[in-house]
Amino acid sequence: MDDELQPKPVVALVHDRDTLLKMVDNYPCHDDDDDEGRRAAAIDHLYQLIMQSAATVASTDLLMIKSSNDDSSYVHKTFHLSSAFLKCLKKQVVGDNFSCSSFELVAAHLWKAKTLALGLSTETMVCLQFAVDARNKVEPPLPRGFTGNAYVLASVALTASQVVDQSDHKAIVDKIREAKKSVTNKYVKSYMEGVAAGGSQQKSLPPLKELTLVSDWTRMPFHKVGFLREEADYASPLVAPVPEVIYFMQNPEDDKGIDMRIGLLPQYLDAFTRYFFTNTAIPIEISVTCSVASVEV
């Protein structure tokens, strides 16, 4: 039989959380581990953002601010960043001789543009968090074909001035890489402990506009999932589970481009768009979705 006609081996799907849970229970903790060294940066930075928010908002005004920053107040836009746009952006913000992934490039540029749009004071802490696959980070690694959620958030925290005053994006990209490398077996354990400790309190977080949370879907072609025996023309989340989440997605017609879906309060939207596309001569495609109705217009 022709090799091309031979059936390809199928990877058995596995949804076994025992490895992950046993790791948390059995990972050795040493007495000489200081708290800061053992705490996952994503949890630590989130705590600092909450404390910063609490320090700048009077308790009597908190309910009013939470209402004005309610999910229904956000406007969601999808920007199609074509492969030509990404090439132009890379040349402008890091140069042709600096190697970086499209994710690192767009995440750094997005963070800087959003920080500029918010108009924060120079010493305000801002935070970029993004998902990192934990399958090969845990010991022992999760089995091939594991289908459950197996990611943790890596985190970068800087002052607003440290983000916006950069002449290029190289320093931010380096920080993103450092955050990726920091995700180890120990980090995953600390992250899981932090999330478990948060419990139901996670639902009552104050508005955190200083947090930028990126979810990378570029390796998940949801539009190729069969729908009535046909592939979908497009697939996208309409509204994020929390307003700070920004999605990077595949575009069905441009596999080297990125569709970036972001939600912002209306007063920051024009400024963000202006800062994100400043000095770029490549046209972009934009679709707008109101989070209340979740209908593209």
Could you tell me the number of beta strands? 10
Order of helices and strands: HHHHEHHEEHHHEEEEEHEE
Oligomer: single chain
What percent of residues are in strands? 15-25%
| Total of DSSP H or I helical runs spanning 4+ residues | 10
Calculate the terminal CA-CA distance, rounded to whole Å. 53 Å
- Largest β sheet strand count, sense and barrel closure: 8 strands, mixed
What is the 3D form? globular
> Over the alpha carbons, how many angstroms does the gyration radius reach?
21 Å
The percentage helix is: 25-40%
- Arithmetic mean of pLDDT: 78
- Strand arrangement in the largest pleated sheet: 3-2-4-7-8-1-9-10
Summarize the structure.
The chain is an alpha+beta fold. It has helices at residues 18-26, 35-38, 41-56, 62-68, 83-93, 102-118, 160-164, 170-181, 185-198, 266-276; strands spanning 75-81, 125-133, 151-159, 211-216, 226-227, 230-231, 245-251, 254-264, 285-290, 295-296.
Tell me what the structure shows:
The chain is built from ten helices and ten strands. The protein is α+β, with helices and mostly antiparallel strands and 297 residues long. The strands form two sheets. An eight-stranded mixed β-sheet has the order 3-2-4-7-8-1-9-10, with helices on both faces. A two-stranded antiparallel sheet has the order 5-6. It is globular, with a radius of gyration of 21 Å. It has helices at 18-26, 35-38, 41-56, 62-68, 83-93, 102-118, 160-164, 170-181, 185-198, 266-276; strands spanning 75-81, 125-133, 151-159, 211-216, 226-227, 230-231, 245-251, 254-264, 285-290, 295-296. Helix 6 (102-118) packs across helix 8.
